[in-house]
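Q&A log
Question type: sequence-to-structure
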Amino acid sequence: MDRPVATKLDPNTAFLNDPAAQELCGAFEDSGFQAYFVGGCVRNAVMGVPISDIDIATDATPDETIKLCTDAGFRCVPTGIDHGTVTVVVRGHPFEVTTFRKDVATDGRRAVVAFAKTLDEDARRRDFTMNALYADADGAISDPVDGLDDAYARRVRFIDDAGQRIREDYLRTLRFFRFSAQYADSGNGWDADALAGIAENLDGLETLSAERVGAEFLKLLSAPDPTPAISVMQQTGVLGRLLPGAVSEFLGPLVHLEQVTGAVADPMARLAALGGDAVDTRLRLSRRDQRHLDSIRTLSVSADTPKVIGHIGGREAGRGAVLLNAAYSGMPVDGDALRDVDTGANTTFPISAKDLPHLSGAELGAELKRLKDLWLASDLTKDKDVLLAP
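Response status: OK
Response body:
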């Protein structure tokens, strides 16, 4: 049996006042089916943090969902129909609608699922209690696994047995640390059952694809302050399994410098602070991210001025490099240094090939390099006339 309704969401919650969302839920109810807002949107509403995607859970099968939504005039896209998910577009807004599911078999990377008929079955295949909250169209919350108190307390707990949840999908170890960094109240400490389950299942991390690990790791590093989570990952052996050679020593100082200077957090700068071997391969970084990471790593140990670093690396990589260099050395960074990075990123080398018409080929390239080296050595101050003077 489903647990009784625990409480109601604030009536001002955005999706409770969204005509498209309400129209979609109404179409299910008019056809005799259940429809609940579920997961992140309910969790975030309870916790008072911004809501992004709005997901719907229902006891209707995908075929039933497509039929009733099509009859209601909505557009349906079978984006994940094998797993019970249909994207329904209402008034131009997409909603992922997923049939209640239960796991039939798991191998630590993916699950074989079957459709279920009860909210309780659907809840118990999820990862954390705070992610198994459901709300109907009126905002009445159903809480099958006692996640409401955890959400209010900002406490991340696995549903039932932590080890079992992790063995169903080993990525849940990394998700635990990511959710802890994003949502947990550090004053609660770390859930002992979760850490025990993680420590007992470290070998499973090696079965995960680099793409899944990379995507989750970068989300973790995008949290306001991932330092406590990364530190515990190091203590439990998780960090060493995912990124051999990585250490958390310089991450805290970097995050502190970001905060005191008002700099935008850069996941690649934070990743550079961790170090580690073959990071691009182990996290399957995009080419853009890999170039950005390499630039920060190189420039963070450069003796160049912030202006030069900004010119060479650009604004984002330059700022990350200057902050990381200060984190390495334990030195403060003032706003002038970051403004100098911005100045350098926006300053153009004043010499071009047309200024050296008497040269071509290798000689032209060599002279342009010599002049640019002089310009960089002047902290970008020498103008064209000075550089070209005999």
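Response note: The CA atoms of residues 8 and 140 lie 4 Å apart.
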